[in-house]
User: Fold this.
Amino acid sequence: MKSISKSGMKKIFASLGLAAAGTASLHASLLDLNSDSKNWTISGTLRGFYDDNYLTASKKEGSTGFEFNPTFSLHLPLQQTELGIRYTYGLYYYEKREEKHQNPIDQTHQFDLWIDHAFNSRWDLRLSDTASVTQDPSLTTGPTLSAAATAQRVSGNNLQNTANLNLHTIWTPEFSTALSYVNTYVRYDNRGAAVTNTVPPVVTASFAGLLDRVEQNFGLEGDWQFTRKTTGSVGYQFNLVNFTGNEVTEFVITDTNTLAGHFTHSSDRDNYSHIGYVGLQHSFLENLQGSVQAGVQYTTYYNDPTAGNSLGPYGNANLVYTYAPGSYAQIGFSQSRNATDQLGQDSKGRITQDEESSVVFVSINHPLTPRMMATLAGHYQFSVYNGGENNNGSSQMYNLSANVAYNFNRHFSSEVGYNFDCYTSPAGGNYTRNRVYLGFTASY
Assistant:
C-alpha cells in the first residue's frame, strides 16, 4: 500500500475532529428527548479514509478523502400491515481528484421500501424495493451472495432497482407455498459505442450497451414441514433477461479472407432460463440452523443462433451459528448464471453470453466488550465465461472487510475498519485495492 502523505493525514483527522465535535453537540442536544416511542430513526456517519486504488485500475492511484452518509428510516406497524422506508445518501470526496482538477465528489443514493400485509393467519403478502445510484462496485455488491456483473468503477449515475413480491400461503399445518416475482432494472450512464472507420471496424462497447437490462424472475415453491425442526421444499423458477442498451457491441468476422462480417447488438444476449430445485431447512440446535437448495438451470439464448443452450447447476446454502449472546458466524454459498461485462468473439465468431458464478460468503460478529463489536466478512466469486474469446476462462474476485465499532451509548459510536479487494480475469483489468477508514456515527 502506498504511504499516506502528512498533509493528507492532517486533512483526514482535521475532518474527523470537526465530525466528533459536531456529532457530540448533536448527541448532547438529543439526550433530553424521549426516543422510546418514535417510529423513525435518523443517523449520520462521517469517515476519513485512504484508498490506494479508488479507480479500481491495474495501475494504482491512491487518495485520501472522507465520506458522509446520513440515513433516515421510518417504520409504521399497523393493525395487519407493517410499512418501512429508508433513504441513505452518500457523499465521497477524493483529494487526489481535486489535485488533478477533476470533480472530487461522488454521490450515491439508496432508497428502500418494504410492506408486509397479513390478510389473515394463512395469507401473507410481502413487497420490497431497493433503488440505488452508485459508481463503485463495492457499494452494490459487497460481501454478499450476489454475483457481480462488473468489478470496475463506472463513472456516472448508474441505477439499479430491484423489486420483490412474495405471496406466502399456509394450506395445512404442514404444507405451504410461496409465489414470488422479482424485477431488476439496471441502467448505466456510460452510453454510446465507439466504432472505428476501418476494415474490419473495431467496436468499443459502452457499459450501457453491455449491461443495461431488465431481469424478471417468476417462482413457485412448495414447503412441507416434516418435523418441528425440518422442512423440505421443491421449487421452479422462470428467469427472463432482456438487454435494453440498444447499441452495437461487437463486429463479428464471418469471412477471414474478405474480413466481412456483421455487428452484434445488446439484445443478442437476451435469454431465458428454467430452474428446478429441491431444498431442505433444518434446525440442528437452538443456536444452529442451516438450509440448502440444489437443482439445475437450463438457459436458452434465443437471439443468437450460434450460442445454443446451456445446462448447469443451480443452488444455494446457508449455515448460521449463534455461539454466544450477540455473537454469530455465518457461511453461505450460491451457484447460478449472471450477466457479465465481457463480450469478445472467439475464432468461430461467437460472443460471450454470460458467466456461471460460484459465490462463497463468510461473516463473524463478535462483541469484544459490552460496548465494542468486531465484524469480519469475506466474499469470493469464481466465474466461468460462457462463449467468446475467453470461453471457459475464469475470473476471480475477493473481498475482505474487518471492522471494530465502539458504542459510547445508543446515540453515539465510533469505528475503524479495513477493506481489501482483488480481481483477476483473462480479459484483463486485474487489480488489488486496500482501504482503511476511521469514522463516527450519531443516531437518534
Remarks:
- Helices lie at 6-30, 95-99, 207-211.
- The mean pLDDT is 90.
